[in-house]
Amino acid sequence: INELTSPGARFALGVAEDADVGSNSLQGYELEANAYFAVEVKESQDGSKFAELVLRRALDREREQSLRLVLTALDGGEPPRSGTAQLCINVTDANDNPPVFAQDRYRVSLREDAPPGSPVLNVSASDADAGTNARITYGFGETAAKVLQKFVVDAESGAIALQEALDFEDTRGYTLLVEARDGGGLAAHCKVEVEVLDVNDNAPEVTLTSVSSPVPEDAPAGTVVALVKVRDRDSGENGQVSCELSGEAPLSIVASSGGSYKVLVLERALDREEQPELQLVLTAVDGGIPARSGTAHITVLVLDVNDNAPTFDRATYKVQVPENTPVGALLLQLNASDPDEGPNGETQYS
Question: Pick from 23, 39, 181: which is nearest to 101 by CA?
Answer without folding.
Answer: 181
